[in-house]
Amino acid sequence: MSAVYDCGEPHTRSDGLKAAASAVRSGRLVVLPTDTVYGIGADAFDASAVRALLEAKNRGPDMPVGVLVGSWSTVDGLVLGMPRQARALIGAFWPGDLSIVVAHAPSLQWNLGTTRGTVMLRMPLHPVALELLREVGPMAVSSANVSGQPPAGTAQEAVDQLGESVAVYLDGGPSGEPVPSTIVDLTGEEPELLREGAVSAEAVAEVLGEEIGPAQ
Q1: What is one process in the GO biological process aspect for this record (predicted)?
Q2: What pLDDT, in 10s, does the model give residues 192-203?
Q3: Residue 9: strand, helix, or coil
Q4: What values do phi and psi take at 106, rounded to 5?
Q5: Beta bridge partners of 170
Q6: Where are the domains of the chain?
Q7: CATH class of the domain defined by 3-179
Q8: What pLDDT band is residue 215 in, cutting at 50, 70 and 90?
Q9: What sign for the dihedral angle of Cα 84, 90, 93, 98?
Q10: pLDDT of residue 216
């Protein structure tokens, strides 16, 4: 049976984070608040858990799952070399609403879907999410909704859509305006804007010192 924890209260927040960490380590799914919308997450290195995440969302591997991290330093162990542009964007916007797509280290034993050797990374600006990520390590996280339905802006909206497929729900209150993260692809010769979200294209271009166009 799923458990919902109110993270607005110190005692239940502590209990919820412990339960969520235990669930992630045992290959189960959790819902967590982020600075954009609620996310459904699993251990990024547990292929069975990631498959369960995709099944809960009624989504196939052709739409791979991104990875959330709890610190800047975590990224160095996940990527195949760190592009200069990636370091600049991380320094400017993390933790926050910017996702970067980079080539992942070939030694990593994970299966996030059809990624073609890349991974989308983000460090969220939310204390509950960061505390969980720092406890369990990188998590595969997608928006907490069934594909085709609106993303969950509250824990209850996530419960209504995902139900018993999730072991632990961490309720961090309403997420606010459901604006997605901006996604920048750094795997090609030039940076490409895959999605403009909470961070404007102009802000990204200013940090990179060059214009950034949409993916072709």
Answers
A1: tRNA processing
A2: 999 999 999 999
A3: coil
A4: -65, -20
A5: 5
A6: 3-179
A7: alpha beta
A8: low
A9: positive
A10: 57
